[in-house]
Amino acid sequence: MLEPKKQQTEVIVLDACILISNVLRFISLSLAQKGYFQPAWSPIIRDEWLRNASRLWSVERAQLALDWDQWDEQFPLADQGIIHNWKEGLQYSDPKDWHVIAAARAAQVRFPGRLVRILTLNSKDFNRGELRRLGLERYEPDLFFCSLWPEAQEDFYTILNQMPEAVTAPDKPMLTVPELLKRERLFNLSKRFGQQQPL
Prior knowledge:
globular; four-stranded parallel beta sheet; 2 domains; Rossmann fold; single chain; alpha/beta
């Protein structure tokens, strides 16, 4: 297992909507593999991803489960296990996403003293005040990736240059890095990528 880039790297709960996007998943897991953060999820996030990915991609769940098993092997501390009790007291966020907050609360116990954030596209479903009272924060992908840019710039260039081939299905035309980033509304990350790349 790779050593984290920082002594107390933050913990990021990856919502299923992040993992369902080939681009966001590739960037997030690639950064996690390089030690920029500790990813976290739960069996409920796993089931939500399997259900939606199978429907969207017309792929058998058993086949997709092999991918998830590989992620569990790469990140042995990511699965926060049974999290139902951690929904207790939640009121103001969308109930369908309480399980994501519960995973984050479980991660706070598993990783004491480390900042825990939720990475999601559904920011409106997470009440910022409620999260703040729990010592949690939520991130949108563009803001999160750009917050890592100063430290991870060289790794970002490597990851993003590898991305088009990694995320393009065999029967689809390959898009450029800027096209893929803008499609995912990663506008600020795209601007940074467009700057002078290191030799």
